[in-house]
Structure formats: C-alpha cells, structure tokens
Design brief:
It is found in: Nucleus, Nucleolus. Residues 44-256 form the Brix domain. One of its GO terms (molecular function) is rRNA binding. Belongs to the RPF2 family. InterPro entries: Brix, Rpf2. The protein is 20% helix and 33% strand. The chain is elongated, with a radius of gyration of 30 Å. It has 314 residues and is of the alpha+beta class. The longest helix has 14 residues, at 169-182. It has 2 domains: 1-7 and 14-36, no CATH class; 37-269, Rossmann fold. Strands 3, 4, 5, 6, 7, 8, 9, 10, 11 and 12 form a 10-stranded mixed β-sheet that branches. A two-stranded antiparallel ribbon has the order 1-2. A hairpin with a 7-residue loop joins strand 10 (213-225) and strand 11 (233-238). The model is unreliable at 1-16 (pLDDT under 50).
Length: 314
C-alpha cells in the first residue's frame, strides 16, 4: 500500500515537494492505513497556530478558542510561522506538514496585517491536503467571563439561527467548519446533565453600500431553574467569549475531492463482521449453528407397546 507521507526538497527547483512512502513491514502498513482517509471518521482534532504577524486581539481569540475545546483534542502552537499563507500558491505546504504531524483534521490560522487586520482562517484537511478555507475578520471580541467558575462539559451544543445557514454558500461552509472544529467526538447517547452550554451563531448584514456578511458567535451556559412543575425553566447565561466575525475570502473544496470525502458508508459495513452471522431483509439477523453429526440408530427412543416382544405360546 502506498500513501503520501515523507517530504523532501528538490535541488533543481528549490521548492518543497511531496514524495510517496511504501510500507516495508506489516507494522508500517498498519501505520499508513491509520493515517489514510477513513470511511468512518473519528474525532477531528483542532490545530491553532499563528501566521507571519499577529496582534494581541488575535492571541486572545486563539486562547479563548482553545478553552472552548477539550484540551486533549486541541493543539496550540505559539510560535510565528513565516511561510504559512494558505491562500497563496505554495503557502499550504508547512500547514499540511504540521497538520499531519499533530494528527489534526481542522485548523485555525491567526494573522494581522494592515490590509486584513485581526484575521482568522478556518480550514480542514483531507488526505493530508487542505480541503477548504474560510477567512473571517474579528470585528468585535469579548473575553470569557471569569466570574463563572462552573466546570462545563467538553462537548457543547450548537444553535444556528437563520435560513442563511441552509441557503447561502458562505454561511453553509461556516456552519460545517464550526461543527467539525468544536463538536468533538460523536457519541450515540449523552447524559442530560452534560448539556450545560451552547454555541449560538446568528447571521447579520452590515449597513452601508458594501453590506458585508457577518456572524455573531456567542457562548452561553444552560441553567435549569425551578418552575414549580416537573419541567424546569431554562435560562441562558452569557459566559463568553463573544465574537463578531465578518466574511472575507473563501475557497471551497474541489468537486471530485468533496464527492470522495462525503461518501456515506453502508451500515452493514460500519459494524464489525461477526463470524456465522448475516443480515436478511425478511428475517433480520440470521445466525448459523454448527452441530456434530448424530447417529439416529443409537438415539434412545420410546418404543410403542405393539412392538414389545412377547413370549411365544407352545
């Protein structure tokens, strides 16, 4: 099996290139298979890193985004990276290398320039290549409320208010990236006590001739109050951080790569194969039982009375 992996430098071109690595042992083959795209995807880790220049606002935003995610599922790199410019040609190589090294499928790059102040680039990685990109600007920011000392669960709830998240392409991409970046691992069951916080996103349009698309991103704590009945009264407490984001640049995934990435797997393939068990449309789950061959003649059976032997009369 051949997988994309090792990176080398071509002396003729002076640029970084991607070479192919072939497994020589069974252990190496299993390692490459674990790094390859999976049909049943596990928890997508988040990578936070900085670009060429940053501001204090960008640094504070990145720290708050780190606190919104489980620390075991998030990697924060604090050094500046001069060669990470995702929207430029050749500026994705170092980003793809760091994503593969840290095993992160989603990333956020923070930068600050005169043309694009307080800039954040959200993106995802598929098959060790940048899948899609969405650039937003931080227009408003408020830190987390330190007065709330409650320990929250690492898995938040999400609420997207507005039809724009279903109809507009940029809002749909923003919703998809936010879900992949902050929802954590997918579970079948959850305790109701673990539903203690929600991330709410609301679309707005700025006034003026430009009419920029913006999103208000708020982080609330869910409090259950007494209501005099069995059903509690639900209150939302703003715990921060609060972000006002405006869309700038975006790059969607290629059509062929998107078709391969969103391919659904049959439920029968997801389940682990069990020996001598199959699925039938009419009978449902059918199992085979193997028994030893029996000797019918040696089986003790009850004989009828008519066949009993009687003494012969003389």
């Amino acid at each position: 099996m051949v997988q994309r992996g090792k990176k080398g430098k071509d002396p003729r071109l002076g640029v970084t290139k991607t070479t192919k690595v072939e497994a020589k042992t069974k252990k190496g083959k299993r390692f490459l298979e674990s790094r390859a795209p999976q049909q049943v995807e596990y928890c997508k880790h988040l990578l936070l890193l900085y670009g060429r220049k940053t501001s204090q606002t960008v640094k504070d935003v990145m720290v708050e985004l780190k606190h919104m995610r489980d620390r075991n599922e998030c990697t924060h790199l604090t050094r500046k990276n001069e060669n990470i410019v995702p929207f430029e040609t050749g500026g994705e190589t170092s980003l793809e290398f760091l994503s593969g090294k840290t095993h992160c499928g989603a990333f956020v790059v923070g930068s600050h320039t005169k043309k694009r102040p307080n800039n954040l680039i959200f993106g995802r990685v598929y098959d060790e290549k940048v899948y899609d990109l969405l650039e937003v600007g931080v227009d408003g920011f408020r830190k987390q409320n330190n007065e709330v000392n409650t320990v929250f669960s690492p898995k938040p709830s999400f609420a997207f208010a507005g039809d724009e998240f279903e109809n507009d392409e940029e809002f749909k991409q923003f919703k998809s990236i936010i879900l992949d970046s902050f929802r954590g691992r997918i579970v079948d069951n959850i305790n109701l006590k673990g539903v203690d916080r929600v991330i709410m996103c609301t679309p707005i349009y700025s006034s003026g001739a430009s009419k920029r698309k913006q999103v208000m991103m708020r982080h609330y704590a869910i409090k259950l109050k007494k209501s005099g009945t069995r059903i509690p009264r639900v209150e939302l407490v703003d715990i921060g951080p609060s972000l006002d984001l405006s869309f700038r640049r975006s790059r969607a995934a290629p059509v062929d790569v998107e078709k391969e990435a969103v391919k659904k797997v049959d439920e029968a393939i997801k389940r682990k194969k069990v020996k001598n068990v199959s699925d039938d449309i009419l009978d449902g789950t059918v199992g085979r039982i193997w028994m030893k061959p029996q000797d019918i003649d040696a089986v003790p059976l009850k004989k009828p009375k008519g066949k009993k032997s009687r003494p012969v009369e003389e």
